[in-house]
User: Which sequence fits this backbone?
């Protein structure tokens, strides 16, 4: 059985959100091919993650056996996030572009997902690269949407794209290497023209094709292991 973790970061309701539309296409395809897989969901619009603060940082950087009951309590939400990431084989994120980056709601989730001793270790004996991921072997699917266009490498707004680099930089906390990040993006939403209509159709088709490819790969690796 494969476990998928679906994080929705759009502040929009389902009927208006393009990233939620891509998520529906992806999961309908996956569940058609592999109906018995487990899907964990967190919709940050209805179940938000709070920003980290001084108490949270103190709790996270205190060794587990030295934490006070209040510290243990403070980390419960983060523990649940890390448990879900640890359990997942495939992490699917619906990520609208807001002000050229990820939504703040997702940044809060990311900040609570990066935990010393659980998702990364830190050791200065490793010299200039003291952070090492603890998790491994996972796949990240980014289902994105933006109002403008040209954020891809070489595109006219490539230098303004703070969304993809942020996710790529943090992916190691979730056990994802860069080669295992797959991104589907709908563009031109603000233009409402034929380019937008074509981008919606292309995005839906890409989400379906990606789900088919990854679901088939999951089935193939199960039959190799059997
Ligand atoms: C608060 C806000 C900020 C946005 N900032 C950008 C932006 O910087 N660049 C861009 O191309 N589109 C931007 N957009 C457009 C969204 O990326 C676009 O509407 C997208 O479809 C949102 O995803 P959703 O439909 O799943 O909610 C912004 C939209 C909102 C609501």
Assistant:
């Amino acid at each position: 059985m494969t476990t998928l973790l679906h994080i929705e970061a759009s502040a929009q309701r389902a009927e208006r959100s393009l990233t939620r539309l891509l998520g529906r296409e992806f999961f309908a395809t996956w569940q058609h091919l592999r109906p018995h897989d487990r899907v964990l969901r967190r919709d940050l619009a209805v179940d938000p993650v709070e920003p980290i603060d001084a108490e949270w940082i103190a709790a996270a950087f205190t060794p587990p056996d030295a934490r006070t009951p209040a510290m243990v309590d403070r980390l419960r939400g983060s523990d649940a996030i890390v448990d879900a990431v640890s359990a997942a084989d495939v992490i699917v994120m619906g990520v609208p572009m807001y002000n050229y980056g990820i939504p703040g709601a997702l940044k809060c989730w990311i900040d609570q997902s990066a935990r010393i001793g659980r998702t990364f270790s830190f050791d200065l004996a490793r010299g200039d690269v003291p952070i090492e991921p603890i998790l491994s072997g996972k796949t990240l699917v980014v289902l994105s949407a933006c109002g403008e266009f040209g954020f891809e490498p070489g595109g006219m707004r490539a230098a303004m794209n703070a969304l993809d680099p942020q996710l790529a930089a943090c992916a190691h906390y979730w056990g994802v290497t860069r080669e295992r990040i797959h991104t589907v993006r709908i563009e031109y939403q603000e233009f409402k023209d034929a380019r937008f209509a074509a981008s919606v159709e292309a995005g839906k088709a890409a989400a379906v094709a990606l789900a088919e490819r990854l679901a088939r790969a999951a089935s193939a690796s199960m039959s190799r292991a059997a």
Summary: The CA atoms of residues 145 and 153 lie 16 Å apart. The mean pLDDT is 97.
